Amino acid sequence: MNKLIKKKLINYQWTNETHHTPSITKSIEKILKRTTKSTFEHVDVGCGNGFITSKIRKYFKTSIGIDLSKQGIYFANKNYKSKNLKFYLKDMQSLINEKKKFDYVTTIEVIEHQYDPFKFMECLEKILKKNGYLLITTPFHGYFKNLIMSIFGLMDNHFTALWNHGHIKFFSIKTLKKLISNYKFEIVDISYSGRIYPLSSSMIFLLKRK
Fold it and tell me: I want to staple 120 with a disulfide (CB 3.0 to 4.6 A). Which of 5, 96, 97, 114 is the partner?
C-alpha cells in the first residue's frame, strides 16, 4: 500500500522556470519600482529555482536567494548566478546565526508551505532591518473564490494533497493580517495578482519593519 501511495505522490521539478502564476512577477515589479533604492541589500527567502529572484534582482544593490531544495539551488546557480546575485542552500536560522540583516526581504508563494508560520514570521522579523520592507505573496482565499472552486470541482488540485511539501496553510486576508499582528510589522499595502478580484490567484502583502 505504501509503495502505491508513493508512486502517486507528486514531486515538483524545479527545472520548470515559471511554476508560479504567470502574472505574479509583473505584480511584484510594480511594487518594487516604488519601494526600493539602488543601495538596498535583498534576500529572497524560498527562492526555489531562482527564476523570479533573477527577474527582480535589478532593483537592488545585491541579492541572494536561499532555499532548502538542493535541486532548486543547483538550477539557480547554474542559470542565474552573477556578480551581485548568489544562491545558497540554507534556511533563515543560518542567516540569523550569521547576524545578517537586509533592507528588503521577499518571500514569494512560500508561507503556505510552512508547518509553523509563526516561527516563519519570527525569523523574517529577525533578518529585516528596522524600516526595511518585507513582501509576502501567497495564494488568495476568499469566500466567493472558494465557492466557485467548490462548484467547479477545483479544490482537490488547489489543496495539493498529493504533492510532497505542497500547500498546508490556506490564508485569507483576515488570517494573514492576524498572523502579522504578532510581529513588528506595519502593513503598507495589500494587492492582488492573477485574474481579477475576487478570483485573484495570489495576494501580496507589503510590510515595513517597525
Answer: 114
Q: Which of 45, 42, 47, 134 is nearest to 92 (CA)?
A: 45
Please, what CATH class does the domain formed by 22-209 belong to? alpha beta
Residue 100 phi/psi, 5° resolution? -90, 135
Per-residue pLDDT, 156: 82
Residues 145, 25, 64, 133, CA torsion sign: negative
CA dist., res. 96 & res. 80, Å (int): 25
pTM: 0.89
| pLDDT tens digits, 131-178 | 999 999 999 998 888 788 888 888 887 777 777 777 889 999 999 999
Q: What are the boundaries of each domain within the chain?
A: 22-209
